[in-house]
Amino acid sequence: MKIFKTIILMIVVLSVQTLIGHDAHYEIKTPHQWTLKNGTAFSGNFYLAKGKNVMLETAHGIKTIVQSELCESDQQFVADKLEWIKKINAMENIQQKKIESAGVKANGNWKTPIVNVVSYEALEKTKNKNYLIVIGIMVFLAFALKKIAALKPLKFAIPILVSAILITLTSFTVSKAKRWMGSTRVSFIDSAFSYYKPAISTRNDSKYYYVESLGLPDHETMLGITGWQQQVPIPQCYVGSNAWSIPLNPVVAATPVPVNQNHFLRGAVALAVNGIAIFNPYTNTGVDAFLDGQLDQYGGHCGRADDYHYHIAPNILYNKVPLTSPVAFALDGFAIYGSKEPDGSAMKSLDANHGHYGSDGVYHYHSSNSAPYMIGNMVGNVTEDATLQIIPQAAAKGVRPALTPLKGATITHNHPYPNGMGFKLTYTLGAEKDTVDYSWTANGDYTFKFITPAGTTTSNYKGQALCKPTVGNKNISAVNSPYRITVSQDRQISLLPISATNATNIMESAVYNINGAKVYHHNATPSINAENWAPGTYFYKAKMDDGNILTLKFILP
After folding, report:
1. What's the CA gap between 259 and 329, in Å, rounded?
2. How many CA atoms lie within 13 A of 494 on its CB side?
3. Which residues in 417-454 belong to E strands, given as ranges?
4. Is 68 in a helix, a strand, or coil?
5. What is the structure's pLDDT at 114?
6. How confident is the model at residue 107 (pLDDT cuts 50, 70, 90)?
7. Close Cβ partners of 101 (under 8 Å, ≥ 6 residues apart)
8. Same fold for the domain at 32-114 and the one at 474-556?
9. What CATH superfamily is the domain 32-114?
10. How far is CA 357 from the centre of its chain?
């Protein structure tokens, strides 16, 4: 009987231990301590190494250091880090070949075997089955401990079993809730993009948050590229119906889709908060753009339509954006952060998707300096078309034929014109120093001058007239709104009917700031004095007498 009692106790302890266990994750190491040859020391994460420079992500933003200025041990650290990145990507290539060898070929494209597609669902079903088995065992033990006379001395174990059952049920419920939870507040996304307004413009409906931009960042572009495709950045018209679309209520997919050489090879997978698209780390040829030398010091380059975009998260934006704010949003609707959590703490361990659930129960990704760089698997539901592109998304439009790679060229500068209507790009090719001097007009007339020691070649192209992001009041949730917001020079806010024939009465009104805090409330619609309000974006909400809710966005200068 003593042996039997011992076995019962072991089952109880093992059951509880099983329930409080967790899945293994790989850890992101703490910031490295760097030392310069002159003795200066500081901490930061390795970000990029391009040419002779090393870019480090510090608490104060991106810091660029000439590699030779680092102490010998840190120079070796950089070399080891780059070698490690190459090995990781080499391992990914080997794994991908294994997947392809186990797959089937359809219409000339490799398709992932069914066993891989359903692996997440099979794992979920196995977990559910295990939960039920464990709960059944514990219920039986609790009954046995109470009813069987010989086991009554072990009745103290009943509270432990009851607690274990509750933990199991809670874990099961939280897991399911997390899988389907993904609500993203408009004010939260708006606050992330607010640092780059009015250069970009935003609006939304009930399904998407739309971002308008011209596709040109405010930092220097193309610097340090060694694998140059001879494309250069020009304005794009990501406005109106061609704006970028971010889902407002993302839903976690039953099977996350990998961001790799087989999926999302065309178009963007995310949008940075400066309105610049972020593509798959792999190009449409399946090459790691970073390791191939195609990216500038900020993780970007230009596509065949001369459209500038990133291939890794542009952490350079943290020079302007707080480290606690997202640097981008994936096109599945989930936020992407840098090395900090939203609460300012150090980044927690990441799962295989390159993210985790936050303290608010909503999933988010993190960027890193090694593959997969930003998104391992697309966690949210997305639609991928036949060209391996997420839809919907904005489209770039070029003005000239795409050129071929220029082997051996290294871009040294890309200086913008003072009037913002062109660039002067310089590059070295062997002992030569060449230039591409190009500009455009408001009517869309483009002039490209290719300047080499052998002479100058000029080409002219006709593109579309330049467009501008729409800036000002946006009607957020009401189509054909009967009202509009006006802000006077003395900061008096008024709600005015557009037409007296279709206006409805307002029963209650309130104003919220970009963080969702209520700054004004009234049961009528008087003129609002905003003289002491902080500049920024606000939302006016009104309850109409027909039961509808009117929401208007306005900008207070």
Report:
1. 15
2. 9
3. 422-429, 432-440, 445-452
4. helix
5. 28
6. very low
7. none
8. no
9. SLA1 homology domain 1 (2.30.30.700)
10. 14
Instruction: Give the domain ranges of the chain.
Output: 2-23+118-180, 32-114, 186-397, 474-556
Q: What residues does 343 pair with on adjacent strands?
A: none
550 within 8 A of 542, measured Cβ to Cβ? yes
**What does DSSP assign to residue 344?**
S
User: pLDDT band at residue 162, thresholds of 50, 70 and 90?
Assistant: low
- Among 76-80, 146-150, 446-450, 470-474, the range scoring the smallest mean pLDDT is 470-474
Check whether 235 has a pLDDT greater than 70: yes
pTM for the structure as a whole: 0.60
The predicted pLDDT at position 16 comes to 40
Which CATH fold topology does 474-556 show? Immunoglobulin-like (2.60.40)
Q: Give the C-alpha separation, 116 to 378, whole Å.
A: 15
The three-state (H, E, C) secondary structure of 115-152, written as one string: HHHCHHHHHHHHHHHHHHHHHHHHHHHHHHHHHCHHHH
Confidence of residue 237 (pLDDT cuts 50, 70, 90): very high
Count Cβ neighbours within 10 Å for each residue of 160-175 and write b for 16 or more, e otherwise. bbeebbeebeeeeeee
| Amino acid at site 223 | L
